[in-house]
Amino acid sequence: MRRHPGIKDVAALAQVSIKTVSRVVNGEGSVLPATRERVERSVIELGYVPNGSARILKSGVGDAVGVVVDTIADPFFASLVSVIEDRALRAGMGVLFASTGLDAARERDQLLRLAGQQVRGIILVPVAENHEYLERYRASTPIVMVDRHMEGYDSVVVDDVDATKAAVADLIRIGHRRIAFVGYDAALSTIRSRHGAYQETLVEHGIALDPRLAPPSPAEIFDTRLTTLGLFDLQEPPTAIFAANLRAGIGVADALHGSGRTHVALISFGDFSLAHLLTPAVSCIDHDAYRIGNVAIERLLHLINTPGTLPQRIVLATERLERGSGEIPGPAPAMAESA
Amino acid sequence: MRRHPGIKDVAALAQVSIKTVSRVVNGEGSVLPATRERVERSVIELGYVPNGSARILKSGVGDAVGVVVDTIADPFFASLVSVIEDRALRAGMGVLFASTGLDAARERDQLLRLAGQQVRGIILVPVAENHEYLERYRASTPIVMVDRHMEGYDSVVVDDVDATKAAVADLIRIGHRRIAFVGYDAALSTIRSRHGAYQETLVEHGIALDPRLAPPSPAEIFDTRLTTLGLFDLQEPPTAIFAANLRAGIGVADALHGSGRTHVALISFGDFSLAHLLTPAVSCIDHDAYRIGNVAIERLLHLINTPGTLPQRIVLATERLERGSGEIPGPAPAMAESA
DNA sequence: TTGAAAGCGCTACCAG
DNA sequence: CTGGTAGCGCTTTCAA
To answer: Closest nt to B7 (CA→C1')?
Structure first.
C-alpha cells in the first residue's frame, strides 16, 4: 500500500514552497490567483489530503468531541449520538464515538484513546463507578456525564426516582399488588435508583417486597423475554410489570404479546418505536434521547468555551405517556386517591 | 483550560529521559523495576495520556477504521456500526464514525476528515454518485462500499432486485393489482434499483404503471406516514404496499395501523423491532445489518492486510419473513403459479 | 539499562 | 506575495 502524498509532494509538483500550499489549502489570503490555481491542480492530481494528526499536533487542540455510550445498537444511544453529532458539526467539530459494551476496562481504554486524540470535550454514559484515572485529565478537558450521575461531575440525567415512584404508585392505585420489576442490574446506578424507588413505593403502600418479582437481568443480555416469561412460572405471577429501561420494555412487550398475556399491565421506562401501535398500546415514561442529547452537547460546548465553570447536575423532567397498557386495572379494590 | 502534561513532564518528574518514559508506557522491555515504578507513579500523578496525534504522525499509520453512514439514528445503520466496532476492537483498532445526513457535500467533508486522521480503511454507505476526489486516495487506503454498489469499488450489498421482484410477484399472485411503492427517492441508487424491479415486475404481469402509486418520498423526511395516508385519497387506492426500506416500512405500518387499514397488504424491505407483534404481523424482506456489517468489516480487514486485491462485489441473499401482512389476498382472482 | 538527537507533516513566525 | 525555519510530542535509530 502506497504512502499518502504530503504537502511537500504538492509543493514540488506546483513548484512553490510548502508554506504556499498550506496557505491555499487553508484558504488564507495573499496568494496570486495563478499560483493558487497551480497548487489546486496539484492537490487534485495527487489526491492530497492534509494530515489531521500533524495539524492537531501542531495546534495542540483537536477538532472533535468524544462520545462514549453503552452500545450504539440501543436506539436510545443511537439517537443520543445522532443529535450530538449534528450539533457538533454545526459548531465546526466532528465527533469521535466509542462504546463500552458495559465493560469498565473497555470504557477505560476507549476514554484514554479519545483523550489521546485531543478531543475538546467528552460526553460519557459512565459504566464504572470510579474514574479516578480521569481526575487529572478533567483539568484540561471537560466531561459531561449523561443518563447516569456521578458525584463531582457535570451530568444530565432524568428524574428517575420521581418518575418511577409515580408510575408504581399509579399501578397500585388501580389495583395492582403483584408488580414486577424487569431489567434489574445492580451494576448500573440508574437502574439501582429506579429499583430503589420501586421498592420504596411498594413499602410505602404496605406491600411486602418479593425479590422474585425483581429478578436480576444483567445488561449484557440484551433480550429480556426469558426473564419476563419466568415471572409467570411463579405461584403468584405479577399482574403488572414495570420495565426499568428501553431494552427491558421492548423485551417485556415482546414476551407479553408473544405469549398472549396482554391483560398484564405494563409501564416502560423509555418510549420505543411502534409502542403506540400494539394492542394495548404500551404506556411509557418518556425518556427522550433527543432532548437529553441536546442539553448535554450544549452544556459541553458551554464548558469548552467557558473553562472553570463549576460542575452542575441537570435533571430533566420526564413525561408519562398513558396509552393503555399502564392503565389496565388490577385485581385489588382500587384505592382512593391518596392525599 | 490547562495544557495536557506531555512525555517531557513525566520524564522530568521521574528524573529519567523521555525515551525511558516511552519504553514504560509502551511496555517495552529493558527498564529496571525501580525506574519503571518511578515512571508509573509520575504518569499517574500527572494524569499523563500519550498524545495519539504525535504517535500517528510519527508512525505514519492510524489505529482506526472509518465508518460513514446516512444517519446513526436509523436502527439499520446503528446495528451496522455496532458490529463493525466490535470486530475492529478485536482487531486492535478503534472506529471513527461519521454520518452524511444524505448530503453529498457533507459526505465529502466527513470522508476527508477521516482520511486526514490516517484511518487504515473506510466503510462507506455512499450518497453521492461520484467520489472522484477519492480516486487517488484509494491507492493508499482501502474502501468498502456497503448497502449501495459503486462501480469499480469493493462493495457488500443485498440482492435488491431479486428480492423486490419476488415480493411484488407474490403480491400479484395473491390477487393484488393496485400495489404502491412507498419510500421512493430517486437520489438513492438502492432505492432506484428496487423501484425499477417493482415497475418491471408489474409490467411483466401486464399491469399498467401508475406513478401516483409510487409517490416521491425524499429520504430527508424521516416520516413516511403522510405519504402513505395520501395514497388512500386516490380514487382507486392501493390494496397492497411495498415499503422500499426500513424507514418506509415503519412509517407505513404506523400509518396503516393508526388509521385502521390493517386489511391492506404490506411487505417491508427490512425487518424492524416489534414488526412481528403487530396484528397482522408485518412481512419483511430481511436485510440483516449484523450479517452485512460482519462481511463488510471482514472484507476491509482483508484488504488492509492484503493490498492489491482486486475489487469485488459481494451480494448477500435476503430471506423473506412471511408473517401475515404480506399474505393478505387482494381483490383480483388469484393467479396460477407461473412457470 | 539508559540517553541524545533526528524527524514524522504541518503551521507560525519572520524575512525577503 | 512568497519562502525559510523552528518546533508541536512522540518513536526510532544509534551511542554510551
So the answer is: D9
Taking only the tens place, the pLDDT of each residue in B190-202 is 999 999 999 999 9
Domain holding A142, by residue range, is: 7-158+289-317
Greatest C-alpha distance within chain A: 90
Give yes or no: residues B154 and B77 share one domain: yes
- Closest residue in chain A to residue B80, using alpha carbons only: A73
Q: Are residues B131 and B219 in the same domain?
A: no
- From the CA of A205, how many Å to the C1' of C2? 71
Interatomic CA–C1' length for residue B276 and nucleotide C10, angstroms = 55
Residue of B nearest to A63 (CA): B113
Strand C contact with A51 (CB < 7 A): yes
Question: Among partner residues B60, B133, B253, which is closest to A277 by beta-carbon distance?
Answer: B253
Q: How far apart are CA B77 and CA A82, in angstroms?
A: 11
Same domain, B24 and B154: yes
The reply to whether B338 falls in a domain is: no
B39 touches strand C (CB under 7 A): no
What pTM, to 2 d.p., does this model score? 0.92
CA distance A339 to chain B (A): 38
Which residue type does B27 have? Answer: G
Question: Does residue A334 lie in a domain region?
Answer: no
Do A135 and A256 share a domain, yes or no? no
Q: How many domains are contained in chain B?
A: 2
**Contacts by residues B103-110 (CB-CB < 8 Å, ≥ 24 positions apart):** B103/B127, B104/B128, B106/A89, B107/B68, B108/B133, B110/A94, B110/B68
State pLDDT tens for residues A204-259.
999 999 999 999 998 776 678 899 999 999 999 999 999 999 889 999 999 999 89
Instruction: Indicate if A59 and A88 belong to the same structural domain.
Output: yes
The total of other beta-carbon atoms located within 10 Å of residue B8's CB is 11
